Amino acid sequence: MKKDLTLYQRKYDLYRHHAWAGSILLSVLLAIRVFLQITGFKDIPDIIILPLGIILVIYILVSLGFTYKYRSGLIVEQKIVQKIETPEEAFKKQKISAKIEKERLKLEKKKAKAEVKKIKKSTKK
Questions:
Q1: For the purposes of burial, counting CB atoms within 10 Å of the CB of 34, is it exposed (0-12), middle (13-18) or buried (19 or more)?
Q2: pTM of whole model > 0.90?
Q3: What is the DSSP string of 24-87?
Q4: Cα separation of 52 and 56, whole Å?
Q5: pLDDT of 21-57, one tens digit each?
Q6: By C-alpha distance, which of 124, 3, 10 is closest to 67?
Q7: How far apart are CA 11 and CA 111, in angstroms?
Q8: What is the C-alpha to C-alpha distance for residues 35 and 31, in angstroms, rounded to an integer?
Q9: Which residues contact residue 71 at a Cβ distance below 8 angstroms, ignoring those fewer than 6 apart?
């Protein structure tokens, strides 16, 4: 039986995401518990926090197990799609670049004129 490595890669990514999400949820659960204790709620029922924590730990471990199982999907080479530019697209890009350059030159000319004007004013005083 030949492994479908692209399928393994997708499954690896999916389970890696679930392991990550589970660890974040566990962190949030524990942070909420700590914040409630800090604010003075001493009656935090561990009967609620403990099962949720255990469920999240099991969820994380199962996800990590599947990421280990599907790790062979990591060796799949990604196909790089290179777009071939048509002459029309190249012309449009060149035209846009020319407009941008023209605007840049206009701004530089404006700045230079303002600077000359400023220098003239300062020398007249």
A1: exposed
A2: no
A3: HHHHHHHHHHHHHHHTT-----HHHHHHHHHHHHHHHHHHHHHHHHTGGGGGPPPPPP-PPPPH
A4: 6
A5: 999 999 999 998 888 888 887 676 778 889 999 999 9
A6: 10
A7: 58
A8: 6
A9: 12
